[in-house]
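Notes from hallway chat w/ T.B., transcribed later so I don't forget. T.B. wanted the structure written out for a chain they're using in a teaching module, and asked if we could keep both sequence and structure tokens in one place. Agreed to drop them here.
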Amino acid sequence: MATDSAKVMGVVTEEAIAEPARRRDGLVDGAVRGDGLLVLGACCAAVAATESCDVVDSEAVKKALEAANAFHNRAADHVVCSAGTVEPGYFMDQDVEGFRRSMDINYFGCLHVVHAALPAMIKQRETERGESGGQIVLVGSAFSLMACIGSTQYSSSKYALRGLAESLRNELKLYDIRVSIFYPGNVDTPMLERELALTPPETLTIEGVSNPLSAEAAAQTLINGVAKGHFSITTDPLVYLLRILSNGVTPRHNTVLEAATLPLVIVIQTAFLVFMDAVVEYSRWQRAKQRRNEKKDQ
């Protein structure tokens, strides 16, 4: 089962992040609403064609890619994988099928698109000597960098997507194809409204009160990050600090600056860890108190 955002791939003529010398083609999946739709609108002068498919179905994805490439008579130069779904909740209240569904859309949906797009991109790179091999962007989440109560289903799939991005970043240098991963915080979309309605109170407390970023601003941040050649792209200072802390063996934006700020980031991380655990322990105490009161009333 796929959400609407996982069912559509927008095939676009992309100019905002392409080389200005010539027109290049791009692919945005998950472009029916939310981040994907705004990326599509922000980076495109015109929509040349669309191909609809369920990204969970790898064969359907291949056929959509073939149709898109045939329409443009070339492979995509930019591929943005933004299809996704989120179902917050307590781990013990969620069934295993929900975890499979989340992995099918958030991880395998993106993997299917990249795997289907790469052969034509690689072949095109070999025939167009001197040209860049193209760009792949995977849309992760702040929950690709941290996890807490209520996020087990979503974070698991987004951590997997991060692993895919980091592996591909290194491997696709074989073909001069660049890879980036986008770590947005909360973005003001219909999906966020549904997410907040399902989110446990402890998770809401940990996330804190913050104004979600507009989808337009998130899309522009992604485009700007790609234009700067960043592997990791974030939307706000707190997620940026998370990225510094969890960078792994991937490129940094400014190695000297990040090394200098790392001690402060570790202090902030430690304080937040204490806060995060305290929220859950307080909830446990409240539940125990409620059970005691219920027994007294019986």
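Follow-up for T.B.: The chain is about 55% helix and 15% strand. Might be a good example for the class.
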